Amino acid sequence: MSVAESHILPVYGPPEQNFVRGEGCWIWDDKGDKYLDCIAGIAVNALGHASPILVKALTEQAGKLWHTSNMFKIAGQEELAAKYTRDSFADVVFFTNSGTEAIEGALKTARKYHTANGNPERIDIIGFQGSFHGRSYAAINASGNPSYLDGFGPRLPGFIQVPFGDHDALKAAIGPTTAAVILEPVQGEGGVRAVPEQCLQGLRKLADEQGFLIIFDEVQSGAGRTGKMWAHQWSGIAPDIMAVAKGVGGGFPMGAFLATKEAAKGMVKGVHGTTFGGNPLAMAVGNACYDELSKPEFLERVNKVANQLGQALEGLKDRHPNLVVDVRGKGLLRGLKLKLDPKLIQEKLRDRKVLVGVAGDNVLRLAPPLVISESEISQAIDAIDAVLAAQMAEAGA
């Protein structure tokens, strides 16, 4: 079927490749061509394609029970929630189908907290310019990209954005109607920018003093991607609420928001719900994925290969100073800020059978499976190096 005949809503612009099979960090198209996947479905396929661990968990559960809805208890939810809370700041968990839904639940939880405390006027959610929190109506209002709002009617009340990294602007925006501050410890779509640890520590101090909540959006930066289970753990502080998704399901659609009992005090029976969230299939995969990601030796290996990737990207910056402005990110969520359109480099890399992503602020984004090997990282870096060298040669000509 040609593009003209497609009945898919035309909100995407995919390239011509039609991928049909994957294994580890590699993916094959319908022509039999093999590609090195360094974007992993946008930081989703944490254990690689067709992970035997996840395939086994899914197929075993598929032969038992798929769906009951949350009108009945789901044993896998209790099991996975116990693991999440055991290893984090949180006391309670609500499972969703996606990161957007996790964000929606987190926003509702923050506002409901203040209502439960007798302060219903505290509705303002403060975010940061360049942020991305999903595509639902509340999420695009919480995000710091005006283009996401264009054509969708008036802004929702109670959402404020301040410049990324501007501490004075943040302090000025906080007031008696502030409910929460939402941020990504490592921005994804906004340009792969890591928030300095001292800034997260300062935010925690400010929240405790002013009585607002902190929501961390770890949809992209969580699930071991930075070398700790959750990126904020590098700072030594904790949020009140956290949204997760992407890598937690290793490719199966699932997400969650986590909270302390105090932050979730307003979320009582009947105020929130989902039909599919936390279904038996998702929980089987989520449990298997978490068991693997949370192994100390797994995270130690992530840090090892992440250090290699970071050093290699710095090497690219040194070799191509006329094209590479900066190396960004943390762990295996990395970016190269370029002086030229990253989509051009993405296309050239695809021609060389290497898949990468792009992000805002002219950034080429890499978020490979966490199981990527040192030799596979070297292959990816060599391809980027060759593409950048070719661009320099073309410009010189």
Structure explained in plain terms:
The chain has 397 residues and is α/β, with parallel strands linked by helices. Among the domains are: 53-293, Type I PLP-dependent aspartate aminotransferase-like (Major domain) (Aspartate Aminotransferase, domain 2), CATH 3.40.640.10; 296-329. The chain contains 11 helices and 15 strands. The strands form 3 sheets. The protein has a 7-stranded mixed beta sheet with strand order 4-10-9-8-7-5-6, sandwiched between helices. The model has no long low-confidence stretch (mean pLDDT 96).
The coarse overall form would be: globular
What's the CATH architecture name of the domain at 53-293? 3-Layer(aba) Sandwich
The proportion of residues forming helix, as a percent range, comes to: 25-40%
Q: What does the oligomeric state look like here?
A: single chain
The CATH homology group name of the domain at 53-293 = Type I PLP-dependent aspartate aminotransferase-like (Major domain)
Would you tell me the overall average pLDDT? 96
CATH topology of the domain at 53-293: Aspartate Aminotransferase, domain 2
The CATH class label of the domain at 53-293 is Alpha Beta
What is the rounded Rg? Answer: 21 Å
Structural class: alpha/beta
Query: Spatial order of the strands in the main sheet?
Result: 4-10-9-8-7-5-6
Q: Counting H and I runs of at least 4 residues, what is the number of helices?
A: 11
Q: What's the β-strand tally? A: 15
In terms of DSSP E residues, the strand content is 15-25%
- Spans of at least 5 consecutive residues whose pLDDT stays below 50 are none
Q: Sheet bearing the most strands, described?
A: 7 strands, mixed
N to C succession of SSEs: EEEHHHEHEHEHEHEEEHHEEHEEEH
Distance between the termini: 40 Å
